[in-house]
Design brief:
Number of strands: 16
Strand order of the largest sheet: 1-8-3-6
Largest sheet: 4 strands, antiparallel
CATH class of the largest domain: Mainly Beta
CATH architecture of the largest domain: Sandwich
Bound molecules: ligand 1OR
CATH superfamily of the largest domain: Jelly Rolls
Helix content: 25-40%
Amino acid sequence: SVSAESLNPTSAGDESWSPPYHPKTDDQLARLRTAVSGNFLFSHLDDDQFKTVLDALVEKPIPAKDIKVISQGDAGDYFYIVENGHFDIYIHPSGSVQPGPGGLGNKVSSTGPGGSFGELALMYNAPRAATVISTEKSTLWGLDRITFRRILMDSAFQRRRMYEAFLEEVPLLSSLKPYERAKIADALDAIKFPAGATIITEGDPGDAFYLLESGEAEALKSGVSVKEYHRGDYFGELALLDEKPRAASIVTKTEVKVARLGRDGFKRLLGPVEEIMRRTEYQFDASKSPTAS
Ligand code: 1OR
């Protein structure tokens, strides 16, 4: 559970805190900017926060495969962003790494360029939830615990909490693990539309996927209503799945709140439910049309 300290990352009397400053070469800065550009935890920072984080990050070269960057059960010190290379993630059911073969537990996930790991122990003041180990020579950037908590955590935490309950209710996402939904929450943007607004225009290229959080909307093909959307429904996936123009317009019928996921997030985070999305049929169902009687 969430301790009081983790909701209030800055303990009293730290007015004297100054963020770590690790000078960087132009080459390092350029590589770092590319590495964080795809990371959603950074996309909601203002310019000052972004600069503080860039200054605080430290390059951590991982010279080979089989290097354990994080051991399950340890205390958390750094959050990591992957610039290049690859890492496997293991969880041992006993809660920590065990001696001997198979001691890492079961492989649950993996991550590569633009990905990140190690946030959980810092967010929740908990032991490391998993072991993270390199599968090749790699480059990481590390952010210390205090800078992570002071600058990145509030926005990440709020976003995860804000969307936790809603994402649990979305049928499309019900097969995902809670941690996978948390990663989706990091990447969502909340947008409101008044009644009668066009969210998607038929024929346009697609750049985002949407989950409907509240209100009602409908899909129109050449001006004819073909489908209605309610809380928990999704739209905008077809153009992204097959790189096709928008197959319909989506227009709001009431005031609407949507959670928007950009193309990168869609590709990276919704892979596990791609087959479910592809199974959705879009035949015109006259019995459900508002014009049928
Ligand atoms: P950490 O600080 O606990 C280990 O250190 C990191 O592995 C953890 O933060 C996450 O960033 C990362 N469950 C828990 N941690 C995971 C998982 C995970 N995947 C990556 N990490 N999964 C749940 C398995 C039941 C895998 C979900 C696909």
